[in-house]
Amino acid sequence: DADVTQTPRNRITKTGKRIMLECSQTKGHDRMYWYRQDPGLGLQLIYYSFDVKDINKGEISDGYSVSRQAQAKFSLSLESAIPNQTALYFCATSDPTDHEQFFGPGTRLTVL
Amino acid sequence: RKEVEQDPGPFNVPEGATVAFNCTYSNSASQSFFWYRQDCRKEPKLLMSVYSSGNEDGRFTAQLNRASQYISLLIRDSKLSDSATYLCVVNVRTGGFKTIFGAGTRLFVKA
Question: Cα–Cα distances in Å, from B27 out to A49, A75, A96, B32?
């Protein structure tokens, strides 16, 4: 079984809709992250959390919110989706003693 | 200017070739450095960390030059399976935490 899972894997929605992307991990890591990837731009950090009570904005947090429901779960919400939020979204985890980040398989979101 | 810049791709090389990727970073507070590999439509995965003394893992060699703020990845004896996008990644600690991913360099290895 995958250590980091994301649901849904693909989603098509309309402008103005509320969308939630979910991430679960079985690695036992405290640190979790949400990124988006656009062609030619690399991964951009949206939000990150170093433990259940810790939430931090990344470089592109506008239009997004997150919830860290448990150590293993970190969800990303788009309160009112817009077309320029069409992208590939990745969740990742890491251990504070190790800089490696482990990524989920990604969620491909299309906002029409 | 992007904080982490990589060679524009794609690189098209024959099997067996040696190929080098370059990466520059702009933040002098950068502390740790990595190369990740990303296959098409897949998640990035750590290829190797990059140390000041340079490090090698099989056919892959990574180098770091802190003075020039430059990182490199050398792939020797390229295989078809090396075809992927290679991401240069930098961790910066300046009060807060920041991991910065380069846009990636695409490699195609052809038979």
Answer: 23, 30, 22, 12
Residues B35 and B37: their CA atoms lie apart, in Å, by 7
As a whole number of Å, the end-to-end CA separation of chain A is: 33
pLDDT of B97 over the 80 cut: no
Six token digits for residue A71:
């150590």
Segment A91-112 mean pLDDT? 91
Whether A91 and A32 have beta carbons less than 8 Å apart is answered as yes
CB contact under 8 A, B87 and A100: no
Residues of chain A contacting B96 with CB distance shorter than 8 Å? 56
Q: Nearest by CB to B91, from A90, A99, A105: name it.
A: A99
Contact A99 B103 (CB under 8 A): no
* Residue A95 pLDDT level (bands cut at 50, 70, 90): confident
pLDDT digits (tens, 9 = 90+) for B47-79: 999 988 889 999 999 999 999 999 999 999 999
